[in-house]
Amino acid sequence: MPGRDQTRWSSHADQIRPSDRKPGENPAENKEPADRLRYLGRRRGDRSVTRELPDTARSTPVTASSPDGARGGRRGRGRMTTTVVSLSVALLLSVLAGIALGPTVVPPGDVVHFLIAALTGGSIQAEDVTGYSIVWHVRTPRVLLAAVVGAGLSVVGVAIQALVRNALADPFVLGISSGASVGAAAVVVFGVFAGLGVYAISAAAFAGALGATVLVYLAARGPLGLTPLRLLLTGVALTYGFQAVMSMLVFLSPNAQAARTVLFWLLGSLGGASWQSLPLVTVSVVVSIVVLLRSSRALDVLSMGDETAASLGVDAQALRRRLFLLTAVATGLIVAVSGAIPFVGLILPHMLRILVGSTHRRVFVIAPLAGACFLVWVDVLARTLVPPEELPLGVITALVGVPVFITLMRRRGYLFGGR
Predict the structure, then answer these.
(1) How far apart are alpha carbons 134 and 320 in whole angstroms?
(2) Which of 201, 220, 249, 278 makes an SS bond possible with 234, Cβ 3.0 to 4.6 Å?
(3) Among residues of the chain, what percentage have pLDDT more than 90?
(4) C-alpha distances out from residue 18 to 13, 38, 278, Å
């Protein structure tokens, strides 16, 4: 008697009915890897894999070579291209608007003129020196850093959700940012790394992030390697531990201003942005995007579980170790220059999956553009809502992220474990 799965599903490729199948015959054995992935995803009920397939009647197979499949593929690629181009144009306009807007508004024409003069070595009038300094030395590095940090948080958020297979994961769930906060608090309270001047907090925060990475890895590693549940629980537990250490440092500080400084840094700020702070974090974000794009197919398989990944030739443990190291270093460098900015790496991955589907390659292509646009405008709001004061970025991302998260959960509940 055929098994339950055999009775329910039949192969799209060969159209063998359960009654015609020979005992012990598995329709997935003779398939190519991509077809086998789709078949196994259907048998396991994994909608994240099968959602990308054409939703047609099971008795009418649609392949890439058929007219319907070719038209569907062209439409999908056309939508993806349109989305990428639209986000690229939006990012360019957002950067120009971010440079122009602030407590002192600079006309867009002057912004373009100053940028061209700075890039080409052109000359400016004496009365424009103040505007040129605001545009080139203050706002341009800040806006570019906002774009890089937003892109990095968005991409790392997608990767960590795949790493721990949890819809609530974000770049800070593994305790990396909490370790960085301990380093930053040590600088403010005790003057650690004071010899580095304005870079003391960033250096100490990155050192704290690396220390937290080592502790999380050693504590989460078990007989079966890095499993998603152990990694997630260890990160959450150590997060509370690091926060307790940071709170104790601030409480014992004789400096009354220390608490305000540490709190402002913890909620995220780009006030210390400079041209010198851009290269290292930019390189780390670009490398992360490239590596994750190359690993996107393996991440699709990993999302189906370790057993399925092993059957398809993916070493889940090795992939998880590489992802953990990559995301930890990228998160540490991002937090070192911007502080902990919540909700960017949590909300945007879900919104992008609704927009382009759950295939990781598509999400990794548009995640940097969407994250960069989002954080540029968050920074603009932080600088302009209550001038001359500057709001922490985390306040605005939380005010935006909470209602968006609740809306997504109510409208697309299956993404969060609902029906």
Answers:
(1) 44
(2) 220
(3) 39
(4) 14, 19, 60
- The runs of H, that is alpha helices, within 221-251 are 228-251
Q: Which of 84, 13, 18, 9 is nearest to 46 (CA)?
A: 9
184 touches 204 (CB < 8 A): yes
Coil vs helix vs strand at 386: coil
Terminal alpha carbon distance of the chain: 31
Judge whether 174 and 160 are in contact, CB under 8 Å.
Answer: yes
What is d(CA 357, CA 334) in angstroms, rounded to the nearest whole number? Answer: 27
Helix axes 228-251, 140-164, angle to 10 degrees: 130
Q: Count of residues for the chain? A: 419
Express each pLDDT in 22-44 by its tens digit. 444 444 444 444 444 444 444 44
Return the H-helix or E-strand segment holding 307. Answer: helix 306-311
Whole-model pTM? 0.79
Q: Which pLDDT tens digit goes with each residue over 67-94? A: 444 455 566 677 889 999 999 999 999 9
Cα 185 to Cα 46, 97, 196, 230, 390: the distances in Å are 44, 34, 15, 28, 21
The torsion region of residue 315 among left (phi > 0), alpha (psi -120 to 50) and beta comes to: beta
Higher local confidence (pLDDT), 30 or 166: 166
Instruction: Answer whether 16's CB lies under 8 Å from 295's CB.
Output: no
What does the alpha-carbon distance between residue 173 and residue 156 come to, in Å, rounded to a whole number? 11
Q: Which residues contact 302 (CB under 8 A, 6 or more apart)?
A: 162, 165, 309, 314, 316, 319, 320
**Helix, strand, coil % over all residues of the chain, rounded to 5:** 70, 0, 25
Element (H, E) at 140: helix 140-164
Lowest mean pLDDT among 15-24, 112-121, 199-208, 363-372: 15-24
Residues with Cβ within 8 Å of residue 350, at least 6 apart in sequence: 167, 405, 408, 412, 415
